[in-house]
Amino acid sequence: MNTPSPRLLVTRPEPQASDWAQRLTQAGVPAHALPLIDIEAPPDAIGVERLWRALPQHRALMFVSPAAVSWFFKLRPNGLVWPASTLASAPGPGTAQALLEAGAPHGLTAAHIVSPASDAPQFDSEALWPLLAPLDWRGQQVAIVSGGDAQGARGRQWLSDRWRAQGAQVEAVQAYQRGPGRWSPAQQAAARAALSQPEQHAWLLSSSQALDFFLDTHLPALGEPRPDPRAMRILCTHPRIADHAHALGLTHVTLCAPTLAAVVQARRSSP
Description:
single chain, alpha/beta, Rossmann fold, 5-stranded parallel sheet, 10 helices
């Protein structure tokens, strides 16, 4: 007897994809890791090294994702520790937890971390800013630690504008590089099976860029006959991702909060 195909494809980069897939399966939602994004070292690590050495002059760093945290601390120059006066902000509890785990051996504590609560309606820059806005940012240096590509960092423009309006000096520092996920033959087969049976599968998206990589790189690599992606069931963890999916012509789009409980509930309530 053939094993049924996984119903939920987790498209986050590794190791997050496998971690989410395991926890979803344990919660009763069959899931499979199918990363649409691959995370690598930045083209040039000098920006991260320079930021580490200048940390005492910074009032805050904002980390856009667990990957930003991981690579920032992986590229830490030997002997440097987190300054007592520098805040570490995160858009949600997943990144905040990654900060605490990676930073604790190097002087970062929970008291340094500013992040929306785990029950916040959304985890993004807009949810983070009300926690930062009451502070005095006049003349302060802040940095947004993010991913990017060969052309440089992709910072959070909306958050940068808010900080600059409060008088802060803002820089974006690229800690890692994003590219299309590298699929094994088994993962390609799983993707083709999901596309051929769209009503039995859903794709969990936590990034608009992941969808671009899928359509521009992964889908053509499946060869001919090329499956039609318009019937895909998409489960998005942010309104901007849902808007992007609609703009690309996808119509079966569901929005849910970026928490395990919300994803489980969304899958159980879907046909």
